[in-house]
Sequence to fold (256 residues):
Amino acid sequence: MGRSAITAAHQPVSIRLFLSAVLPLSLLALLTAAPAEAQTCQSRAPAATVSVKVDQSAPVIHEERTYSELTRLFKKPGTHPAGLYVGAFTVGQQSSYRVSGNGRELCVSMEAVEVKITLTDPKIYVGSELANDDCARESVWQHEVLHYRIDQDVLERFTPAIQRTVEFAVKQSGSQVAKRESDVERIGERMARTVRQHLDRAVGDMQSERDRLHDRHDSRDEYARTGNVCADGKLGNSKPVMCASEPRLCTNLEQP
Fold:
């Protein structure tokens, strides 16, 4: 393996927002031309439905790329990877709002929020030069699988917190009075943006933890281990350095 690095490319989270509503014509007919004001509805709106779903797939394995090709793929000066893990989190928010009327006022409130967190296109690369070196290949393989385990772990640990954050944000949005037809969509969009702001902060915390763990794994001690572990041609019981402090991530490094 020489001094080739084994590393991960972890892109920032991207977030998409979608907003939809069904507004009955009977309610549109009740809207007046009075000035719009931010008012809370007297009647309590039904509870909104909140769901947070996680979508992840097994990584695609590539062992046909050379060290030079992995270096170009990673695009980090001074780094010459023997292996590479690539993955990204994508977060989508689908929101809908309802409009209800009691004869005196029209109320806009959140009806449903669905958040989908996707581990998008995970890939593990192992340099083709390692095809005939079982020890070095296994060492690189375990390192890259651990990067994938980090993403799985972060998703599992942060999904409940994101669920609670969105539920809190939806509850805080409450319900507001719409005075004109044009106010309905504006109020609904404002509620969805409020939820998204809370979601952004929770996802930012998730991304920070993800970056921290990936960076810890790509430590100098780990590079030194992978560079020396196969000196006698045998991997033995050697495991990534991070396994000592984060054993939950290392229960199975043979298969992704």
Q: What stands out?
A: The chain has one domain: 46-250. Confidence is low (pLDDT under 50) at residues 1-10, 21-38. Residues 45 and 180 are 19 Å apart (CA to CA). The helical segments are 25-28, 67-74, 134-173, 181-217, 220-228.
